[in-house]
Amino acid sequence: MAPGGRQGDGGEDIDHQSAKHLLDSIGKIVHDQMKKEAEQRSKGELEGKLSFATVSGETGATDKPCNFDYDKLIGANDGKRHPCKKDGKGEEVPRFSDKQGAECANNRIQGNNKNSHYKDFGACAPFRRLNLCNKNFPNMNSNDSSKAKHDLLVDVCLAAKYEGDSLKHYSEKLNLTYTDSPSQLCTELARSFADIGDIIRGKDLYLGYNRKEKAQKEKLEQNLKKFFQNIDEKLPLKAKNYYTKEKDPNFLKLREDWWTANRETVWEALTCDAHGTYFHATCSDLNGDCSQAHEKCRCPKTSGGKAIKAGGDVTIVPTYFDYVPQYLRWFEEWAEDFCRKKKKYVDIVKTYCREQDKSGNQRYCSRNGYDCTKTVRARGKYRMGNQCTKCLFACNPYVEWIENQRKQFDKQVKKYKTEISDGGGRQKRDAGGTTKYEGYEKKFYDELKGNYSDVNAFLGLLNNEKACTAVKDNDGGTIHFETVGTTTTIGENGGTSDTSGTNNENEGTFYRSKYCQPCPHCGVKREGNEWKEKKKNTDQCTSGKRYKPKNNAEATNIRILKSGDGQTEIENKLNEFCDQINLDTLNSGVNSAGGGGGGRSGSQELYQEWKCYKGDDVVKVENKDEEEDEEENVQKVKDAGGLCILKNERSETNSQNHPYDIQKTYNDFFNFWVAHVLKDSIHWRTKKIKGCLSNGAKIRCNKKNKCNNDCGCFERWVKQKKDEWKPIKQHFYTQEDIVKKGPFMTLTHDYVLEGVLELEFLKGDSEEDFEADSSEDSQSRDEDAQETKRIKDMFEKKKKKIKMRLLPMRKQ
């Protein structure tokens, strides 16, 4: 390979530095071929002129797309020709989202499918494409066939002009979020330029999100056929014979050549207010040397300025993405976005799971919210604290996100082989099997498969994307797309994790990181500047200082519904609960979820039976091998509200693989319960009954809609949580040292309990969190924030009432 990763293939210069370089350089080869063939066919008859176009009965005043008056065009047809999508408030929808990602659904992407073995494969449309500013296309029209090629150019330039403005604004916001791997505006513009080109040429894969959008897509396609039929009618006889409707009813050849003839004008409209450079050198200067497009993302249009090896033609367009198959462009864009977001996510979980807290204390937390310096899984000792619940809430959305990304990756990889083997297979899809026209895609794949017929070779170049090489945290998982495999690991409490192949440290691309892991089996301790796992198979690990209740001590029995950690596990646990509710209802004919939330026959495995003891009723089990500074003493257990014990039936088998009974201080148990109530309630609101909510609050359920079962189960779940809360609250009241009298008021159990609940529910709502997470990319974290905001508002209202009650007392 030549220096810089460039290598000649078939006499052409293909750049192998990264996937982006590869695609653009092959696109250059294809463009030159297509351009030469198009010019021989059309003889300049397809080039549009803005000044010849008709807008509201008048011809355009200029051929300059940046100076053209588009206002009349936008106002036509009752204002339905504004290119950019608006939300319910009339504001432009975001182009880069911190809530949503790529769209891969089979019913929204053309060519996506599940084969006979149910292997899902297909393309994924980037979020940028979903809200492309081309909403004027379905409503464009041309009543004068002699002006059709000019009128079409006006509408395409209108869309390009607004698309460029939109991307410029949101690209700036994106770079404030991802400072380590900023987006290049010229590259983003090139991607949208190519998507616009595919729409015009009938190659676009995105079908639309819903019925309305799909109907608009069909309307657009019919409009384009009318435009090109009008264009075809005014062509000279020789050209008309080539583009004949009988052989090409969708005018695919004509559309391809029209784009080739007018792409420079469209690029000029797209870059009216752009700035920056293209990602690699595609222009030639006066001396014939390579240079990068810089001013307005354009090559200089001078007497000597031209695209490299463009046969002496002058062009301002630096990109050739519009001659790269859309599936491959989207795959490369997906990889860049994945790497950029993965780095941000890893930085966040590292902050909350390892780095110092606000007090400057070092911490080592597990993804389940446990403090690993005090947790020893080998003997069933679990401790929270040290702000480790922040780690739980940081890891939960990250693990969910990366599992979903893994599925999207697998889907796109499986499509690669099919694309290579049949050259994209688009000729059948594009024209309903009535034409053999193959277009630019077949030419591209013929060039690509010389060195990249094996998908792993292409994946290796994805690693070289700038955003991917910036992921350097080994503990977070470095990027190696070509080595991605499948494995599983064991969860913190002994169960198989739901990582779907995303937790193999040796395959770091989709590794959920060392930061989102269970505590080491025997815990950790700090040695110098490093964390060290405590030794296994020693008395320090398998035994040590533990506690037990005094003889005849009275316990508070607390029966709680098991909850999960990751979204998949949470969903599975709640589904099991709902299934049991339905089964009990069928068996008894009544709502047997009443007393315990889920029925008691055949459903014991859904619950945990905890026993909590007052601090005064707890004693230490002495052990000569214990480390005195390793564990809290009995007084600390008492100060923490006492001890809660979950009997581990498996420990009675005397197997060394099973820990002793699980012990938590009451405070830790309380925090654990609150955290999982919040996580489960977020899942209910944002996933399971999302479609059953009205105005975000009112639940609409009846026997005539699909919400009936889920809403009914949600009501049982709420009752279950109320039943759990009663004994938890009861045990809280056993702490006698809480009640204190002051000059103006008495510090009661109720007052303290309310403060504790506020603290636990809103732990993630601190300034530290907002500084670290304000730009974090996750729909789940945004939903968490909405849920905590509702709770925060509730506490604020309560505080105001208390202040109003205290005011008269303070005046006395």
Automatic annotation (TrEMBL):
Basic and acidic residues bias locations: 13-25, 778-790
Residues covered by the Duffy-binding-like domain: 333-485, 669-802
Taxonomic lineage of the native organism: Eukaryota, Sar, Alveolata, Apicomplexa, Aconoidasida
Name under which the protein is recorded: Erythrocyte membrane protein 1
Family annotation (InterPro entries): DBL, DBL_C, Duffy-ag-bd_sf, Duffy-antigen-binding, PfEMP1_NTS
Acidic residues composition-biased segments: 766-776
Region annotation Disordered: where it falls in the sequence: 1-25, 766-790
Domain Duffy-antigen binding, chain residue ranges per copy: 122-329
Domain Plasmodium falciparum erythrocyte membrane protein-1 N-terminal segment per the UniProt entry, residue ranges: 18-54
GO CC term, one of those recorded: membrane
Species this protein is from: Plasmodium falciparum (isolate NF54)
MF term (GO), any: host cell surface receptor binding
